[in-house]
Amino acid sequence: NPAYGQGLRKYVFEQVNQNTTEDIQSYIESGLATYFPNVQGVVSVQTSPDYNTYVISLTYTVINTGINDTIQISLNNGQ
């Protein structure tokens, strides 16, 4: 779905802290429920404040197919 995930870019220049980490996790979980109701996922957001980086891991299962996978995405401000 091309509309899913577009809002993650707004977090690239946000300060790396617990509030932003929780916002990212909630954003992803909400998007999964809205755009992919047939997917169950576990979202983990790790931070690296020294490098202004978030590492997002999504481990998911597609219901009724048994397909499992993990996707990992790094968000940083390019430094």
- The strand order across the widest sheet is 1-2-3
Radius of gyration: 13 Å
Strand percentage = 35-45%
H-E order: HEEE
Structural class of the secondary elements? alpha+beta
* Helix percentage: 10-25%
Gist of the model:
The protein is an alpha+beta fold and 79 residues long.
Question: How would you describe this protein?
Answer:
With 79 residues, this protein is of the alpha+beta class. Helices cover 23% and strands 38% of the residues. It has one helix spanning 18-35, and strands at 39-48, 53-62, 67-76. It has a three-stranded antiparallel beta sheet, covered by helices on one side. β2 (53-62) and β3 (67-76) form a beta hairpin. It is elongated. 5% of the residues are buried.
Q: What features would you highlight for this structure?
A:
single chain, 79 residues, alpha+beta, three-stranded antiparallel beta sheet, 3 strands, 23% helix
Q: Topology of this structure?
A:
Layout: H1 18-35, E1 39-48, E2 53-62, E3 67-76
Antiparallel strand pairs: 1-2, 2-3
